[in-house]
Amino acid sequence: MDRNKPASSAQDAQFHAEHSRIDQRRDLLGLARKNAGHWAVALSGGGIRSATFCLGVLQAMARARAPDAVGEEPGIGKRLLAQFDYLSTVSGGGYLGSFFGSLFLPGRLRGRENAQVVASPEVQAAEDAYEVLDFEPPGRIHTHIDYARAPVGEAPLAWLRENGRYLTPGGSGDLFYVLGLSLRNLLALHVVIGMPLLCTLALATLAQVFISSGPLCSPLVALLPMDLVNVLCGSLWWVPVAATLLWIVPLMLAFWMVYFRKSQDEAVHLWNWATLLCSAIGALFIGLACAPWGLDAELRAILIVCGVVN
């Protein structure tokens, strides 16, 4: 995009306004204007670890001299970080990026009574921001220190360090609080998961007792070997298999047999060869139960139930 052309749209106007601010910043810092090829610093994410790493990167770039300023006085315009015009952040890098951007607000770090004689408040803010990045060591926040009279770089890095310890900002008290909270959540999670599981196992045990001692196993004694009867009546491991074969699989087959596959708009064909076959099997079971054969009453009841289900 040619910057010399007049703005023809809102996008062009925004483009020119943005580059006007870049030119103004470069003029204040004594940097040469650039018509193209602007550079940006990108701070990636990763929580407090990323923020700590990004702080070290910005400090190193703020203290390093630009490639064309080697051997000159390390003014703001001669530093490597000042050569970049854009800052992009995400996640953990945004924590450090917001701190870095706040350093350049006029009057943010130094009151008017302590301000130095400079060309403009913006330049004063930039001087203070680079003084913060130059300050070592970061130290900690103390109530007995008068930060209004302390060096400009002492309070911001100490504040950043204290707030970076967001898990235990208050020391040992917060550490025990976090441990207690974690233990409480761990126990609550096990109670929430364990109680339904315990209830399910208890219901399964009651079902096993009911099946083994109830009338459900009586017909099996006349039809199956005793060993197989003991397996079926003394355990519930066969229940999922039986439910799959007698309940889930028939429902799946019924859906694909009854539902017309070619068009979802067409009505369901209830009377087809699948439903007729199931009806015939059910009628056969009922007929066998009603036949004048020497069948037990319990076996007749089972055949009738199977016929009605089909």
How do the helices and strands line up, and which of them pair or pack?
Elements: H1 10-29, E1 40-43, H2 47-63, E2 86-89, H3 92-102, H4 121-134, H5 154-164, H6 172-213, H7 218-223, H8 226-234, H9 238-258, H10 273-290, H11 297-309
Parallel strand pairs: 1-2
Helix pairs in contact: 2-3, 10-11
**Order of strands across the main sheet:** 1-2
The structure class reads mainly alpha
State the helical fraction. Answer: 55-70%
Distance between the first and last residues' Cα = 76 Å
Q: What multimeric state do the chains show?
A: single chain
**Total DSSP E strands:** 2
Provide a brief overview of the structure.
With 310 residues, the protein is mostly helical. Helices cover 59% and strands 3% of the residues. It is built from eleven helices and two strands.
Structure commentary:
It is a single chain. The chain is mainly alpha-helical and 310 residues long. It has 3 domains: 10-169, no CATH class; 170-213; 220-310, no CATH class. Helix content is 59%, strand content 3%. It has 11 helices and 2 strands; from the N terminus they run αβαβααααααααα. The chain has a two-stranded parallel ribbon with strand order 1-2. α2 (47-63) crosses α3 (92-102) and α10 (273-290) runs antiparallel to α11. It is elongated. The model has no long low-confidence stretch (mean pLDDT 78).
